Amino acid sequence: MGTQRLGIVMHGVTGRMGMNQHLIRSIRAIREQGGVKLANGDRVMPDPILVGRGAERMEALAKAHGGLRWSTDLDRALADPQDTVFFDAATTQMRPALVKKAIAAGKHVYCEKPSATNLAEAMEIYEAARKAGVKHGVVQDKLWLPGLLKLKMLIDSGYFGRILSVRGEFGYWVFEGDLQPAQRPSWNYRREDGGGIILDMLCHWRYVVDSLFGEVKSVSCLGATHIPQRRDENGKPYAATADDAAYATFVTDQGVIAHFNSSWCVRVRRDDLLTLQVDGTHGSAVAGLRECRTQPRVNTPKPVWNPDLPQPIDFFAGWQEVPDSVAFDNAFKAQWELFIRHVVEDAPFPWNLREGAKGVQLVEAGLQSWRERRWVDLGALPA
Q1: How many domains would you assign to the chain?
Q2: Pick from 220, 210, 169: which is nearest to 376 by CA?
Q3: What's the CA gap between 87 and 115, in Å, rounded?
Q4: What is the per-residue pLDDT for 330?
Q5: Are residues 153 and 239 in the same domain?
Q6: CA–CA separation, 212 and 21 (whole Å)
Q7: pLDDT profile of the chain (383 residues), mean per 10
Q8: Residue 68 to residues 10, 54, 62, 64, 234: CA-CA distances in angstroms?
Q9: Closest by CA position to 172, among listed 286, 272, 290, 242
């Protein structure tokens, strides 16, 4: 049994998501476990080079995580034939140009979602990767969350009977920056910089709904900018030009109606920052990021509407938790391992740039629905 090296150009890992989820909890964790095991028993050890602006910052980041290679010259990094994979987690607006440059350099590409800010560019980079014959993928991390894996197990077992509807609640209160510092970067709230919760979250809901409840065929979406002014990282006021909340309804080819509220202007009183309630003819379930609870048909209480009396039923008590039957890994790390196997041994990896484009397609349809105040149907993308 041997170990082979896989050189990865990692761009945009100085930000919160890129550093924490992709560098520390994925690539560093994979290195510390001895690499990724292949089907033949061999292992692949990722050897990243961190690329970004600011030599001091890049050097410090590389040193802090095991003495990794680093550079401020992306063109030079892409020119090195020893590094065969390019990963990008920088801003969405920059992504299509960077991915095309990496493809032209012959690199396999893996990137954060959304893969572009518009469908035309998302399809353009997919076509470029397909024609170049390189491997390609888009991060779709929520599919490997423990709560959603448990939900999928319930679906596969036939637990729900016929699934009727899904209610998704996502979000939390992002401080405006005056009373307390904001938890998200200011560009998230400027449309001209690629911000907006519709662009950020409808890409997620596309692959979640498609994978679990049937392919999304139409959407009705209402966006809002509830907080019109925020303060940036330096405490300076700025106009919020992007949507900070979205109220969307999807209909799938299986006839499932899925409604998702996404908001950075909501105070949480639910089990988790993301919850999905799935109701079926034989039972219901509520999944969060890690937990999932069920209520089958035979255990469903029989409430009676009477606003003149205190409610005698404890509605939270009638749900049973799905146990952790396996050890769950970090969701980003799980998909990284699958992509590495895809690159090295051609293992299946369906979450490619075309799938990423489907998420951008839903974003465009959602924005069109909001703008025109109507339902918008989604067409099939080219293969």
Answers
A1: 2
A2: 220
A3: 12
A4: 97
A5: yes
A6: 24
A7: 94 93 98 97 98 95 96 97 97 96 98 97 98 98 98 98 98 97 95 96 98 98 98 97 98 98 98 97 98 97 93 95 94 98 98 98 98 97 89
A8: 11, 16, 5, 8, 31
A9: 272
Measured distance CA(179)–CA(100) in Å, rounded: 42
The domain that holds 277 is classified in CATH as: 3.30.360.10
| Calculated CA dihedral for residues 108, 112, 114, 116, nearest 10 degrees | -50
Query: For residue 55, what are the domain limits?
Result: 3-141+331-351
Q: What is the pLDDT of residue 383?
A: 84
Whether residue 301 has a cis bond before it, omega within 30° of 0:
no
Q: For the chain, what's the residue count?
A: 383
- Residue 356 inside a domain? The answer is no
C-alpha span between 381 and 383 (Å, rounded): 6
217, containing H or E segment:
strand 216-224
The sign of the torsion formed by the CA atoms of 219, 251, 136, 17 equals: positive
187 located within any domain: yes
Rounded to the nearest 10 degrees, how much is the dihedral formed by the CA atoms of 7, 347, 116, 13? -30
Tell me if 321 is assigned to some domain. yes
**pLDDT (0 to 100) of residue 209:** 98
* CB-based contact 2:35 (threshold 8 Å): no
Residue 212: both structure tokens together: 């679990």
8 A C-beta contact, residue 363 and residue 203: yes
* Element (DSSP H or E) covering residue 171: strand 163-171
Q: What is the rounded distance in angstroms from the CA atom of residue 58 to the CA atom of residue 68?
A: 10
DSSP three-state, residue 313: coil
102 contacts 87 by C-beta, under 8 angstroms: no
- Identity of residue 90: A
d(CA 372, CA 80): 48
Contacts of 269 by beta carbon, 8 Å cutoff, 6+ apart: none
